[in-house]
Amino acid sequence: MIAEIETLMQHWAEQTRRCGMEASLSSPMGTLMEFAGGMPRNLPGPRELMANGAGPDHIAREIEAALARLAHQGERGQLLFKLANLRYLPVPALSVPRQMQLLALPMSADRTYRNWVQRLHERVMRDLLRRAQCRAA
User: Fold this and answer.
1) Which of 12, 87, 119, 130 has the most CB atoms around it within 10 Å of its CB?
2) DSSP assignments along 2-60, one per residue
3) pLDDT for 79-126, tens place per residue?
4) Measured distance CA(33)–CA(41) in Å, rounded
5) What's the pTM value of the predicted model, to 2 decimals?
6) What angle do helix axes 110-136 and 3-19 make, rounded to 10 degrees?
7) Under a CB-based contact definition with an 8 Å cutoff, are residues 79 and 99 in contact?
8) Pairwise CA distance, residues 99 & 19, whole Å
């Protein structure tokens, strides 16, 4: 396991759970429809969405892009993508034995599970570095 990538993956999961991977603001047409033609003005209350930004932060979007690329890299990539979703997204977190069961691994395959986590971290790190290099060029 790569500790830095583990931290980034946990951050991605928290961001995904908190605000999903899609950011959106209401449209004027949607607001007109919601309020039957009369758009509200100067409503009191917090403006959290605008103040804190909409959707996940840049780091979470980069992790999501790396995972999406991984999901399109054959059967092994899809398996690692599934591992990422099982390991990081559920609340409360799934136990390792439960994750192994959902991945169709025998309970005696703890070493295999740890190797898959390592491989997931390596592939995500490689893709993050590739994406950073593309932006720098």
Assistant:
1) 12
2) -HHHHHHHHHHHHHHHHH-S------HHHHHHHTTT----S--S--HHHHH-SS--HHH
3) 999 999 999 999 999 999 999 999 999 999 999 999 999 999 999 999
4) 15
5) 0.76
6) 80
7) no
8) 24
Give Cα separations from 14 to 45, 80, 109, 113 (angstroms).
26, 19, 28, 22
* Confidence (pLDDT) at 78: 96
Residue 89 one-letter amino acid: L
Copy the structure tokens of residue 136.
């720098």
Domain range list for the chain:
3-19+57-136
Confidence check: pLDDT of 50 > 50: no
Report whether the peptide linkage leading into residue 92 is cis, meaning its omega lies within 30 degrees of zero.
Answer: yes
Phi first, then psi: give them for residue 129, nearest 5 degrees. Answer: -65, -40
Residue 3: phi and psi, rounded to 5, are -55, -40
d(CA 18, CA 28): 25
DSSP state of 126: H
Asked whether 5 and 121 are in contact (CB, 8 A), the reply is: yes
Max CA-CA distance within the chain? Answer: 63
d(CA 21, CA 27): 19
